Amino acid sequence: MLSNPRFHLAVLLVLSILCVPSAQAQKRAGDRAIPTIYATPHAPVAPMPAGASPKTSMARDTLRNFTRSNTVFRVPSSALVDGSTGWIHGTNSFEDQSKATRLTLPAGARNGSVEQVFVTFIHKANEVTTEQYAIEIFDVDGTTGGPGTLLGGQIFSFAFVDADEDLNTPAFTTIHVFDTPIDVPDEFFVVVDFGAYTPADYERAAIASTDFLGRFVSEDWEQLSGGGWINMSTSWFSEANNGWLMWLEAIVQYDAAVSAPPVITHTPITTAPAGEDLTISASITGSAPISVALLAYAPGGTTTTPPILNMTNVGGNQWQVVVPSANVDLRGLRYAIGAADQTGATSNTPDFNVAVTDAEGLSQPLAVNGTGESAYRLVSIPVTVSNASPGTLLEDDLGAYDPASWRLFGLRADQTYAEFPSSGSMTPGAAFWLASSEAGRSITTGPATSVSIAGEYAIPLNPGWTFVGTPFNFPVGRQQVRLASGGTLDIRAFNGSWGAHTGALQPFSGYAVAAVDSDQLLVAPFGADILARTSATPREAEAAVDETGRIDWQIRILAQAEGASDTDNAAVLASTSSPQWDALDRPEAPVIGDYVSVYFGHADWSVPFRRFTTDARPYEGSRAVWTFELSASVDSPITLTFDGVADVPADQEVWLIDHLEKTTLNLRETPNYVVTGSVEAYADRFSLLVGEAAALSPALDAAAELPQDLVLESYPNPFRSSTTIRFALPADDVVTLKVFDLLGKEVATLLSEQSTARGYHTVTWDGLNQARQEVRSGMYLYVLESGTGRATGRVIALR
């Protein structure tokens, strides 16, 4: 439960008184069609143990957490009953007659005594001086209304410190505790007498000093307009250099005689139309006359102290107030009522939720348009609509469903995509892939109702990934979102490529959330418990986990191809991590459209993910090894860039092994590597090795091992624009490589009697014939002839 005392209605009242597997090949619905997106199901596995529960807040020391002001008294928020003890903070609220600090106990208070006094000084001069002064308590003279009989006091000394005439400079504050508490009546004065004292003449000087009392009525004493400071000399406002300021606070202990709390009878308002004033009424009765009734209200997303309205007595026990129409909208509304009687007894209602309805609803422009991967965005609806069918919500804005115009996909529980009309209902909290080929379009909801802002909104999460959106029509801070299980929260956003999301969740946007088991995403509408505490108020949200301190270094792997990229991948070295799954490992988000996907494959880990975008591990012996894979729906060259190699300790070597190409690369010398991708990824194709040279040499030697047989294969297969043909020779040889159609007609010559060394080699066929024309769709044969032998392979061109 969030606990911020300044936001609780009770306090305000008293102060006022007082992973995804391999993707299939992309298909198109036509020349201009937005691409279909696919995902394949995962197998359920046993979840990992749940993480720690959210931390509870420490209780505040209410005695020392009040902001200074001109308020005469400040009372803690705890309800006081007859005979209990409470504290009062008295500050400098001066009477016009005496300019001294006159304090009044609340009605019903008895047995008051001053026990401590806070005194703060700021000296104007650039010097330090030492003074003595007496803090004295007087009763009220019945004739003059000023200080009367001395009730007690004590002499103290103090060293003044320079403040350079800046009231914002931290002042020096001292706390004086009286040796014996000084009993006080209902009203009394706290004064300060300056001079050189001895215990023998203290009482005489304090009582008989007419100059002392006279100074309090002289023009030398002034109260600054912004607070409770007293000017002890007019020289503060002149060119003289010996002025100083003082701030005084008395702490009084008393027994509170409080009557039974007022009784508030109220019929909650559950719905209200947007844009109209909202009248709220209540019947309030008590054993003592009601002195004040207040209403605190907060539209959804309120981040500051909520407005407090004084209710008006409209006759008898009836009280009424109007919430302005500007605050009644599709953010929703929450309110609570409080009252106090003349003895200081207070009570307040729980908070109530008002569902606000709007016949016009909301309209949100689409941020992007196009027909490629970058055209897709995750969208959500942050209000409740009468019909959440995507057809009802979208076709009136985007036109009849047409894959060449716009497309919508939802993510099923088994991690496959479902296209409209099977994509699912657009209820609050759910998100969907949406792409539009035309600019200038918007989503309009039609008649809508705000989602309840009482407590946390629960969004069900499937094992694996779930697409979610904030259910509220206002931004929700990252600290207001948590997993019901208490586990580590992993939120991703897509903006042309996936990335970690640590900012606020925005209405109409969508995000991907990972869960290791069935769970709930709990979204709190407020960042603090801003009204009265009830069982429905949100618990404290788990803050975003900062893992920076746990990471020794990381190498980011960036993949970039024409029309697609994947930049959210990291091989992390963390001495505290586990070689198995832990909170530092992050799964790969679902692929979409034309994609490039670099990922660490871990089918052996006990989580419902098989692909990971972050793999954290410690050194094992004197080296660390990461294996990763590459999958892509594009067949253009892909550049892998390894960023962060310079952060690896200088005594460690950094190498890349391409097990498919039988190639090794020193990444300290060359941090880039160009390959061709394939939809069907080659398992554990790449190894990233970091460690001492002696520890890495066996793996590097094995990777460079020469072939013993003739090898011939191609990838990607099928291909759209080009394919890479890979062959291996067990000995130096002369090679010819040609492409034929199924009728045996030669289509292209890639190598012609080429002298080639023993080892692994690649040749790219760009899908063109001898006349440099694009070949038709279909199957083709590629034939390798050498002195060692002859080999044939098949490849499919898709046009």
Given as residue ranges, the uncertain stretches (5+ residues, pLDDT < 50) are 1-33, 35-99, 159-171, 196-244, 532-546
- Report how far apart the termini are: 59 Å
Please report the number of helical segments.
Answer: 5
How many DSSP-defined strands?
A: 54
The main β sheet shows up as:
12 strands, mixed
Assembly type of the chains comes to single chain
Task: Specify Rg, calculated over alpha carbons.
Answer: 38 Å
Write the layout of secondary structure elements.
Elements: H1 9-17, E1 84-90, E2 101-104, E3 109-123, E4 130-140, E5 147-159, E6 172-184, E7 187-194, H2 202-208, H3 210-215, E8 222-223, E9 230-231, E10 244-256, E11 263-265, E12 271-273, E13 278-285, E14 290-299, E15 308-310, E16 312-315, E17 318-323, E18 333-341, E19 346-348, E20 352-358, E21 363-365, E22 377-380, E23 384-385, H4 390-398, E24 406-411, E25 417-419, E26 431-436, E27 442-444, E28 448-449, E29 457-461, E30 464-468, E31 481-483, E32 490-494, E33 498-500, E34 511-515, E35 519-523, E36 553-561, E37 564-566, E38 570-573, E39 586-587, E40 596-601, E41 611-617, E42 623-632, E43 637-643, E44 653-658, E45 663-666, E46 672-676, E47 686-691, H5 693-703, E48 711-715, E49 723-729, E50 733-741, E51 746-756, E52 759-765, E53 778-785, E54 790-797
Parallel strand pairs: 12-20, 38-41
Antiparallel strand pairs: 1-10, 2-7, 3-6, 3-10, 4-5, 4-7, 8-9, 9-10, 11-13, 13-17, 14-15, 14-18, 16-17, 18-19, 18-20, 20-28, 21-27, 22-26, 23-28, 24-25, 24-26, 29-35, 30-34, 31-35, 32-33, 32-34, 36-37, 36-38, 36-43, 39-41, 40-41, 40-42, 42-47, 43-46, 44-45, 44-47, 48-49, 49-52, 50-51, 50-53, ...
